[in-house]
Each structure stands twice: as C-alpha cells, then as structure tokens.
Amino acid sequence: MNDLPASLVLAAHLLLLSSLSFGGFPTVLPDVHAFAVSRGWVTDQEFADFFAISQVTPGPNMILMMSFIGLKVGGVPGAIASALATFGPPCTMYYLAYHLWERFHDRPWQRIARRGLVPLTIGLVIAGGYIMASSAALGWQSVAVTAAAAALMLWSRLNPLWILALGGAVGGVGML
Amino acid sequence: MLDRASSDPVPLSALFGAFLKVSLCGFGGGLVWARRVVVEQRRWMGEQEFAETLTLCQLMPGPNIVGITVCVGAKLRGAIGAIAAVSGFIILPWTVGLAIGGLVLQHADATVLRNILGGLSAAAAGLLIGTGLRLLRPHRSRWPRLLVAGLAFGGLAFARLPLPVVLLALAPIGIAVASKERF
User: Is A170:A145 a contact under the CB 8 Å cutoff?
Assistant: First the structure.
C-alpha cells in the first residue's frame, strides 16, 4: 500500500482546484469526480453517496465531501490533508480581497459595481435553491415541501431548523 | 457605511461561537444561517452590506460561505478575527461531520434513511430559495435589477450555463444598469 503518496497527490490536486474554483466549489466537482474515479480511489456510487451525505450533514459541506474522499484514500491523515487543501488557499485569497475591497469602498466606481452585481448574486442564490430542489424532487409532494419551506422562510420568523425537521419528518414517514 | 467604528470590539469567542452555530445549523448550505446570524441576530452587517459581501465572495474562488466567514471576522477583528471565525466554522463541525457521515455511509442503503434525507433536502432547497427572495426584497421596486436577477436565475437554472459564463455575461449588464440609476 502506498497510501501516503495517494493522499498527497489528492491534496495537491485539491489545492490547485480550490484556487481556481470561481463561483464556488460545486463548479469543480466534475473535475474531482474524474480525477478520483479514474484512479480507482472511489467508485461512482461512493462519489454520489459522499455528495448526498455532505449536503445534509451540518457543517462545511464541500470541505467535508473532499474529506470523505481523503478518508477513503488515506485514512484520517488523508481527510485532514484534503480539508486543508480545500479551504486554505481560498481563505487567504478572501482575506486579501476583502482588504482591497474595503480600501476602495467609497470610490464611485465601486459603489456602482456593488449596486450592479448584487441582483446578479441574488439570482444565483435562488438558482442554487432551484437546482437543489429539482435534484431532490420525487413528485408533487417534495415540490410542496420545497414551496412551503420557501414561504415560511420568506414570511415567518420561524427557526429554519423546525422547517428542516418538518421536511425530514414528512420524508421519514414515507410521504414523499 | 453606517457606524463602522463601534465602541467595544466584538470578542473573538463571539465570532467563534456565531460561526460554529452557522456551521452546525447549516444543512444543505450555510448561507441561510449566515444571513440569519450575521444580519438578524448579531446585527454585525446590514442586509445590503451582507449582500455585497456575498457578491465579493461569489467573484472569488472557493466555498462562498467560508468567504463570508472570513470577511465578517476580518471586518470585526482583522486577521485574528478571521481566524477565530473560520476555526468556529470548521474545526468542531468537521470532526463531528466526518464521524457521523462515516457511520451513515455504512448504512446508506436503508430506505428510511433515504426518505428522511429526501425530505431534508427538499426543505433545505426551499430555505435557500426563501433566503434569496428575502435578499431580493429591498430591490422589488426597481425592475431593471429584478431583470438582472431573473436572467441570472434563468441562465443557471434553466439554460444550465456554466457559472463563469453567467457571471461574465451579466456582470457588465448589471453594472451598466446601476450606472444609469438615479437616486
């Protein structure tokens, strides 16, 4: 077994991908899939299961998902290496970008850019919810759960955890 | 922006705790909780500033939610604040998530488990949509902005364009719209 080199190869690749993952980590998932499956580190089914579990596990989803792959490849050290490679470079870049952004905060061009880009951002957030909903949708019942959750989020101050628990319960009793 | 120089510095433990909460509550994406904790509960940012920070994070590589964590920490306490916030967000939830996830993965074929996961993800998707609509509320009287939001939504959700394409195509339009607006 040469587990350690495999974890390092994976970590190095994730280091590169996380520095390039413009628009969030899900955009590089197809690449991770090709990289890990073609080397025989994980199967297709495992990859899909890692994704599903990390989506419904509280916490940093994509970091967790990469760690599941790292765990499979090289045990706990592999998981830690994958996690660090996934969030390390972006954290540094976010920090530096935030400072630049703040320094020019009151320039007119930045005010216009901020105002112009915010609606775009919001559209992307709603699209993310829509894509998640359509991959989770099994029939009109799950569409109804999604619509009810969106309405409660929009018009009530109900704790979102209750909304999630309700969704899980409806699924658990086999109504979806 | 409004009162940037606050009187007392926010304790590092508060940043750690707040983002621990965001992380632990954040099923299917932490954005819902990041907005709730940062804007509604702690009032560390206004609705507008939060949306702008999210914009910055979307333009950068990496997990957006981690970016928000870094920016809020950096805004309130500089580098050490960013480290405290990111530590809160990652260390404990990651450990617990890896342990529980590993267990669940061994039983991933159980029907009941699959059903519960299905219900959870449907609700989580709704929460994300609701959060987006809430962020959109302050813009509802300005139709050009709604149009840009709608195009971004359609490009990603229906046309299934790659995200960089959507960003590159709509960013100039959004900025052009904003430069024509009067106040």
Answer: yes
- Residue B98: closest CA among A20, A77, A153, A128: A77
Candidates A52, A113, A133; nearest CB to B117: A52
CB atoms A64 and B75 under 8 Å: no
Whether the full predicted model's pTM is greater than 0.80, yes or no, is no
- Sort A108 into a burial class: Cβ within 10 Å, 0-12 / 13-18 / 19+: exposed
| 114-133 of B, contacting A, C-beta below 8 A | 115-133
> What is the C-alpha separation between B69 and B82, in angstroms, rounded?
7
Are residues A29 and A17 in contact, defined by beta-carbon separation less than 8 angstroms?
no
Question: Residue B71: which of B44, B92, B47, B91 has the closest Cα?
Answer: B44
Q: What is the pLDDT along chain A (176 residues), one digit of tens a residue?
A: 455 689 999 999 999 888 877 666 666 777 788 889 889 999 887 887 787 777 777 778 889 989 999 999 999 999 999 999 999 999 999 999 999 888 888 888 888 888 888 888 888 888 888 877 876 666 888 899 999 999 999 999 888 888 888 988 998 888 77
Q: Is the dihedral of CA A68, A73, A77, A82 positive or negative?
A: negative
**What b/e sequence results for B43-69 when a residue is b if at least 16 CB atoms lie within 10 Å of its CB, and e otherwise?**
ebbeebbbbbbbbbbbbbbbbbbbbbb
Confirm if A55 and B54 have CB atoms less than 8 A apart: no
CA distance A133 to chain B (A): 5
- Determine the Cα–Cα distance for residues B182 and A157; give it in Å rounded to an integer: 33
